[in-house]
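Cross-check.
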Amino acid sequence: MVTHMLDFGITPQETVEAPRWRSLQNPMESNVPHTCEDVLQVEGRFPEEMHKSLAQKGHDPQILEDWDDPGNAQAVQIKAETGVLMGGSDPRRDKYAEAY
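Predicted model, tokenized:
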């Protein structure tokens, strides 16, 4: 999310609304190579081409429902040039962003 805002200039609201993915691994697994199954989950709002590209690279992503549950976020950004505060709140949860 930080990359969205800092590198690409995307607003906090657009950032928290963007499709999400997550990698699930056993947090207790310390063996290399890992012996547990890794799972890649992606929201269905990602383009179909991305799903195909992941499969071509050997991944088997689990496609989640649109706006499913790979986390949620609220973000506040301070525009350095103006001092203006911009906020964004994730529609995946009943939350809000607040700054003062």
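The CA atoms of residues 12 and 88 lie 5 Å apart. The two ends are 21 Å apart (CA to CA). Passed to J.P. for a second look.
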